[in-house]
Structures are given as C-alpha cells and as structure tokens.
Design goal:
Length: about 350
C-alpha cells in the first residue's frame, strides 16, 4: 500500500514586512508549509486545519489544493482566518507576531493514513491542541507520528508549561525535528546531545536538530548513536520556511526508505545511521532549495533530483505485523485544482472532503 500522510496544524496568512518596510501577504503556517512540501514531493497528503469563512481563508484553501494538498471537512470554521506579522531583518531572518484562532474540533484520522505529522502553534495552543493530541494517540494504532515543536514564545505562553506539552507530544512521536533555537528556549544551557538523549528516552526513534548554517545533528534512541551532517545551502536569500521544507524532505525520505507506517515503525526503531542518512540528505536538499529563494518555496522532486538530492533512499529490510487492517482506498475528496490564482467563484468548501 502506498503512503498516505496526514498533516495537522495551522494555516494562516503571513504579512511580511521586509527590511525596506514593504509589506506582502503570503500563505503560511508551519504545518501548511510541510503539507505543501510533501505534496510537491509527490506524496498523497491530507491536511486538517482551521480557516475562516473569509477571503483570506479562500486564498489559503486555493493555494493548498493547487499544490495537491487534500483538505479535510473540518477546515472551515467561524473565526477569522489567522494572520502572522513577519518582519525580515537585514540577514533575511524572520520574527513573527500572531493573531491566531485555533479551535480544531475532534478529528477522526482518515482510514488508510500511514503517517501523521503535527507541530508548531497548533500542537500547544488551546482549545485545538487537545484535538491534536487525541488524534496522535488514535493514529499510533496504525501510523507513525512526527512532531516539530517550532517554538513561538510570544504566543505559546509560559515556557515551563509549553515544555510539558512539548515533551508529551515528543513521547507520542516516532520522529521529532527541532531547531537549535527551539532547544535554547526550552532547555537553556543544555547541549544538543543532551536533548537528543532526553527526548530519545521519551519515545521517538529518531530525533533531528537543525542548526542553520551549521547543518544538523541527529540521533537514534535504540542504539544511542548520533551523527551530524553539513548544510547544503550555497546561498541564502531568506530563511522563511526552511525548517518546514527540511521537515517535508525528511518525511519524504523516511517514506521512501520504508521507515513510516505501521510496518515501518519497527524498522525505524531498528534502523542504523546509514539507514536514515539518505532521508537527512533529502531534507538538507529541500532546505537548501528553499533558502535560495524568497519566501517559503517548496522544491519539487524533479528539482531535488537535478540537485542530486532526490535519489530514493534504500528500502530498509524487515517486517512486522500491523495490529489493525488499513483501508486501501483514500477518503472521497475533491480533486485539487491546477490554476495559479483563485477564480472568482472558488469556494473553499468545494475543496473539502464530503
């Protein structure tokens, strides 16, 4: 059965003010960027989010479906579409403030889902965070789970409380990706290697920490092995969406290696550094392509192949028996569109699962 991924989390409008003071609006939100990144890498991706019944919500829905993402029926709510105000400094780094509404209702993970990803604000901001955690618990019966904390202290609140939420979600995950900045906020003064071990004890088989221009560190909890890899970026226009692009590439590589899904969980737990390194390389290639352009650009699989980062990782041998049978058919959903801008009669609800 082919991979069927579900991403849960916020989609919003980024109002980006550059160093010259010019403002441009883009579709954003870390989980939304991951969903688009996975779809651009030729994966089947469902997305559970919350949009307002407004022009911005319609724009986001069109953007997602145009890139091949399938929206679940819980997508359109009553609150306005969320907005993030982003300011780019002279180096291209972004700082954010948010006007966010996150009231995701109880979520039923679609039958046949083999991997679920979540992260960022949606995973810790109530009232929707309860639905996210419940969905992850349900999904673990038949799917692997990944998580990216993507800490935003201005909106997430007390970091001592946030740390508890983060560690709960780390414990529900098979794969965790975080940035070095996340770790500095959550565990000030702790070495990356110490956090790799701490999180590995909580449950995930693979923990990856991105370090910007210094590349990545990653560790396997079963063996205790750890390694690093250098960045592949040759030039940086800005860093918007780089971590999300890395996350999409990492998951894509793990899917290709057979390290996701019910049968892949045991293989991932038994994996070696050599087994996961191709997925790390694909992730680094995605991030390099993203920072080479302005905005949260998501590279295609063909582009990665042209860069030498799109080769299929070696499929890891081994098997295990799934506890629950999975549906071989995806849920009935509207076909994603293929136009570049929302037509005048585009309706966000027309892109949702029936």
């Amino acid at each position: 059965m082919s991979a069927h991924l579900l991403v849960i989390g916020e989609a919003l409008i980024d109002r980006v003010r550059d160093a010259d003071g010019d403002v441009v609006e883009h579709v954003g939100g870390s989980p939304a960027n991951v969903a688009v990144g996975l779809a651009r890498l030729d994966h089947r991706v469902d997305f559970a989010t919350r949009l307002g019944p407004d022009v911005r919500g319609t724009r986001i829905a069109h953007h997602l479906t145009r890139h091949g993402v399938w929206l679940l029926s819980t997508t359109v709510g009553e609150q306005p579409t969320s907005v993030a105000q982003a300011h780019l400094d002279a180096t291209g780094a972004a700082e954010y403030t948010f006007d966010l509404h996150w009231d995701l209702p109880q979520l039923e993970v679609p039958a046949g889902t083999t991997h679920v990803h979540t992260g960022s604000i949606a995973a810790v901001l109530e009232p929707g965070a309860r639905s996210v955690a419940a969905a992850l618990r349900d999904a673990r019966e038949h799917a692997t789970v990944s998580y990216d904390p993507n800490i935003r202290p201005d909106i997430m609140g007390d970091l001592d409380v946030v740390r508890g939420h983060v560690e709960e979600l780390v414990g529900l995950s098979d794969v965790v990706k975080a940035s070095e900045d996340d770790l500095l906020l959550l565990y000030p003064g702790s070495a990356v290697s110490d956090v790799l071990r701490r999180w590995g004890i909580l449950g995930p088989a693979l923990v990856v920490v991105t370090r910007g221009p210094d590349g990545v560190e990653f560790g396997l909890s079963t063996t205790g092995e750890a390694a690093s890899a250098p960045t592949l970026a040759e030039g940086v226009v800005d860093t918007v969406g780089a971590g999300d692009s890395f996350m999409a590439g990492l998951l894509s590589g793990l899917v290709s290696a057979g390290l996701t899904g019910c049968k892949g969980r045991k293989r991932l737990a038994d994996a070696t550094l050599a087994d996961v390194r191709p997925a790390i390389d694909r992730a680094l290639g995605c991030a390099a392509a993203t920072v080479a352009r302005a905005g949260a650009y998501a590279p295609s699989l063909d582009e990665l192949r042209s860069r030498g980062n799109g080769r299929s990782p070696r499929h890891v041998a081994g098997s295990t028996t799934c506890q629950f049978a999975l549906s071989a058919s995806p849920p009935q959903q509207a076909q994603p569109g293929a136009v570049d801008a929302p037509p005048s009669d585009f309706d966000a609800k027309s892109a949702l699962t029936a």
